[in-house]
Fold this protein.
Amino acid sequence: MTLNGWLQILLYCGIVLALVRPLGGYMFRVFSGERMFLAPVERAIYAVAGTRGEEQHWTRYAASLLFFSLAGILALYLLQRMQGTLPFNPQGLAGVAPDLAFNTAVSFVTNTNWQAYGGETTMSYLTQMMGLNVQNFLSAASGIAVAVALIRGFARRSASGLGNFWVDVTRTVLYILLPICIVGTLFLVWQGVPQNLAPYTVATTLEGAQQTIAQGPVASQMMIKHLGTNGGGFFNVNAAHPFENPTALTNLFHMVCIFAIGVGLTNVFGRFVGDERQGWAILATMGILFIIGVAVVYWAEAAGNPLIGTAMEGKETRFGVVGSALFAVITTAASCGAVNAMHGSFSALGGMIPMLNIMLGEVIVGGVGAGMYGILLFVIVAIFIAGLMVGRTPEYLGKKIEGREVKFAMLALLILPLMMLGMTAAAAVLPGAVSSVLNPGPHGFSEMLYAYVSAGGNNGSAFASLSANTPWYNLTLGITMLAGRFLMILPILAMAGSLVGKKAVPASDGTFPTHGPLFVALLVGVILVLGGLEFFPALALGPIVEHLAVMAGQTF
């Protein structure tokens, strides 16, 4: 650990904090229905879609989301299967196998972008652009729409509607994702990221060997994959590839983009409820957990492995230990899944923190939208616990939090450990699943655990040492992604529907303030305690026992 490394971390945090209010203010205007610069285009889209933008009850909002997502899965599945007969396929890549096509379609529609394939050897340019890249926009917009719907549930009084799903998705794409991505893509091209439709280049090396250099429409996908916290790489090694991430400046730019919308949504929340301090309190909670995670990973990776003495195993040599450690924490705190280093090569504790970030529901900024609605679930639980401690009905932002809301919150929170741990337990006893594991001992268990944690948390990163392109993993990881996305969203929208109809209760002397240090400390404690109760036994079987074994000089 060096002063230079910590200065890089502080620089990153400063840039992200500087974006909170301006980006949050702009998004607040977008979701408040303010007339924007593409109003004619927006109206044309509504006309084609057959909607007038009327308010939707939570059930209609949820049905719209499910229908939209199902249509996306079917379209992307068919595109992959037929890509061998479609244009913009200069390498003549064949159609994708059924199980892999299912897994990939589910992955990109759920904003997971788990990739059990090498992008440059599997997907045509048309599939990358029309399929994967389109879903990068739409899945991100869907997550943001759900977060905004939940925010309206807290902000509105005695209402029945949560907004309109089609309007929220359209405005997100038109006014937030597209403008930023157009500018960002041009920046990446300037930095050296390819953006073309040319066939792969065959070059002759100095030794006389033939090398095929993959390229394609890379920059446009890199921009939205980070801004929308999608994570799917154009190339197999993701952001460690020099065409995806050519300079230190692009590395910093990618990391800032991953957090930008997530931190901005905390300010959107504060503006909607009429008290920006509420948003800052939530952001402070996220910030504390983030700094703890960065400190542990940076310390663990800078120390290296005591048995082999190197800190650079699996790291990106261009960016050093701090660049790789910081990227690993950011991408798993934000449900992104893009990587510039191989998490499976990290030390036991260094690899545990990214896994734990996902286990906690990725509420440390989290995915676009998903982080906001995820941490609000923990807020409900924290408020309920605070109410129990003082013996009064819990309140949040003037609304009484009753049994109905707490049940919905717990239902959403428990789906993640159910899928992550349940699927890992099944894989750990099936010979066909175990045979895909590269390493023996606790690290091999961590490979399987990380895969299902990543799928359930809709993250998409991996330990990169699990051969996951098999029918078992393609099917079970796909099911886990679907559950982690939609079985969590449905209780959230139901809770929003319950909250939006409640009247405001005036604050009194007994009202627990939710914008100060005491509330932040309580929220941090609830997140860590719940995470520990749910996942500590699994972590003990994997990275914790691996760390203890390494310290004792034992290898597997």
